[in-house]
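Objective 1b: paired records.
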Amino acid sequence: MGKFDFSDVITDIQGTLKKDKRGEDVQRISLADVMNPVSRDPKDYIVMPEWWEDTFGVPGLPICKIVQAAGDSDTGKTSLCVLSMKQAQEQGFGIVYVETEQKTSKEDLEDWGVDTSGVLIIQSNITEKVWDLSFRAIEAFFKKFPKEKLLFILDSFGNNISLHDEELDIVSKNQKVGGAAKTNRFGLGRLLAMMDKHPIAVLLINYQYDNVGSLGKTQAGGKALKFYTMIGIETQRLGDWTKQKDGKKINVGTYVRWKAFKNHYKKSAIDAEGNRRMLPVEVNLQISAVGIERSAKGSDEE
């Protein structure tokens, strides 16, 4: 036994929480010896295809956590959104999908098996409107369905404009752009607070940029978003997926490589015998109109 026995201290704090009508916080304070390992219960995730767990160590998109996918265009980011929606619907989740580039059609969703009548879509590229409408949608969903779970997708986080920037006097030296970044930071904070209250799985699609003046790459949203990201995926295009038909080469999809730039769950991945699993850093995938599949190929030759 150590110097301090916190049992009575914890009991006293829990008693004050009950008196303050904050019963949901009672279980948030305890001794470290009751800390649980990373959940493997499918109920705590939007379960994804097998390649997801093989790569990231957990069954899918975790509830009340953020998964971020960042990369250039045509690298599978929106395909990940659509796959996530399909999986979420099959598992009984509601969906709020924020689409800022107006590039995803009803047909795109339906081709992958998404029931479009069960998806609440927000379309805007104005940062303030994106977050305002998102929070209104999330609050309305849980008011109507208080016991259900929600998938929230923002596609994309780092490619919007701000009303603040529109109003700037470009000649003035005293004003600087950055309204979108500030609004995104505020929006992220409020989203995290809502995730603490409601069972929301979050998928943020982002863009990736070369660091100016230094090596490596960075994502929009800065350190705050990266800090709160539990699984971060860097997406890269490898080439066209082609097949021969009637003596001609036709394009049927895209080869991509996804690398984990952050994986909070990697250190806790274990196998059936309880041994630590060595997870891959990256996975090669092939994307077509029918979905995402694991691929052993990384070229444009079939």
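Objective 1b, second protein:
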Amino acid sequence: MKLLGISASNRRDGNSYLMLKETLPDTEIIQFADLEIKPCTHCWELCGQVPFKCVVEDDLVTVLDKMKSADGIIISCPLYFYIPSKLQAFIERMVCLEYYTIEKHPDIVTYPLEGKPCGLIVNSGAGGHNTLDVLRLLADYVLALHMHLLTIDKHPYIGISAKGGDEKGEILKDQKALKQAKELVGLLIKEIKNE
């Protein structure tokens, strides 16, 4: 079983990463802070010419390849002034790439991330309702890529809302979020085993 953690923070080893490290021990964790992810160039003519291949050369292909090879994924993201810029660029390019691939190759019936289980964790200094907009955005992204969004039986249901703050390590004090994140990983593993 191969799990993948994605820390979408622009800050290396920040709270988003620490939450993944705590709940996904011995699992590969990609940190967007270490990657070059350029914005979408909106190259309508070129986008999707080769199915699901972006013409912009950077680390997007590395992340996508790791997502494709994983059995399940947990994305951990901080609340910035909405979402981190690299994550915004990644989402925009992935959704655009999928759209134009299907437009130009309507005979393609499988999506590279089809049905792959994915859980979400969002943290902010205040925690709680402050994370809801980001959770909704990430949920829309997961669904747009035909992934299977994991839900929990506690509010906010579509993912984990954690109190992270600006200080590194502060997120590890949020025992409720840590417990829920571990339960989310358990659901992810159960989902993979039932496939």
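The radius of gyration is 16 Å. Helices lie at 15-23, 60-69, 85-104, 132-144, 175-194.
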